[in-house]
Amino acid sequence: MASTRIREARERDCADILRMIRELAKYEQLSHQVKISEEVLRADGFGENPFFHCLVAEVVPESGELQGQGIGTKIIKKVAEVALQKGCSQFRLAVLDWNKKAMDLYKSLGAQDLTEAEGWRSFRFEEEAMKEMAGC
Amino acid sequence: MASTRIREARERDCADILRMIRELAKYEQLSHQVKISEEVLRADGFGENPFFHCLVAEVVPESGELQGQGIGTKIIKKVAEVALQKGCSQFRLAVLDWNKKAMDLYKSLGAQDLTEAEGWRSFRFEEEAMKEMAGC
């Protein structure tokens, strides 16, 4: 098992966070959806009223291959711990239907596929539609 | 058309907000999922670092039937306006797959069904799974 420490993100992590957002989007074949910059990440996450909270996993690179070392499981467990501390009674994740590895992991940790079980679908309004609606 | 005013929610709206959350959940046949109380709504939405922001539509009850008067459209347009002001480049809604009226409305305003288009699914961890993961 890799040695992993999970901690709250700091403002100086934003360059790495953006890099990982881009790496994930590339894997998801959705690179064109990444519109955020490091500057906006800093402002949104580390201002007076943060829009998001973020955990960072520091992994000691012992053995080359990071897959299968339980890092994802550790992160999700930490999210559960933090969510309980904040008084949440549930938390949700969005996942692409071809990402079987991720779905299997979430299910093995006790998650339910709400799209399958209850019929939840996700709808997105993009900037163009928003501007039209707002009359800009 | 009904006369509608959309404004930021205030703390004293929480009883009405909870009533509407319960009415919506009943319509969605998901009443058992409503775990929040008025007290927690007040704390989460109107403390120092609010967990949520909320708009309230005040409708002058002119004609009995509220359906089909464009109130939903007005609310979504207001959300678009507020989201643009806050620097958002998109916003998302969750909708049940049998709620054709809602899906048709969102599509007519320019939304895309991401579950259909990109394959996004929603996964939920409930309190029991969270406690198990956190070792409580």
Could you please describe the fold and organization of this structure?
Chain A is an alpha+beta fold. Helix content of chain A is 43%, strand content 21%. In chain A, strands 1-2 form a two-stranded antiparallel sheet. Chain A is globular, with a radius of gyration of 17 Å. The relative contact order of chain A is 0.13. Strand 5 of chain A pairs antiparallel with strand 4 of chain B.
Question: Summarize this, please?
Answer:
2 copies of one chain form a homodimer. Chain A is an alpha+beta fold and 136 residues long. Chain A has 6 helices and 5 strands.
Which features would summarize this protein structure in a list?
homodimer, 136 residues, alpha+beta, two-stranded antiparallel sheet, 21% strand
Q: Which structural class fits the helix and strand makeup of chain A?
A: alpha+beta
- Major sheet of chain A: size, sense and barrel closure? 2 strands, antiparallel
Low-confidence stretches of chain A: none
Strand-and-helix sequence of chain A, N→C? EHHEHEHEHEH
Strand order of the largest sheet of chain A: 1-2
Find the biggest chain interface.
A-B, 54 and 54 residues
Shape of chain A: globular
Distance between the termini of chain A: 53 Å
| E-strand count of chain A | 5
Q: What kind of oligomer do you see?
A: homodimer
Helix count from the secondary structure assignment of chain A: 6
Percent helix of chain A, as a range, is 40-55%
* Average pLDDT rating of chain A: 92
- Work out the radius of gyration of chain A: 17 Å
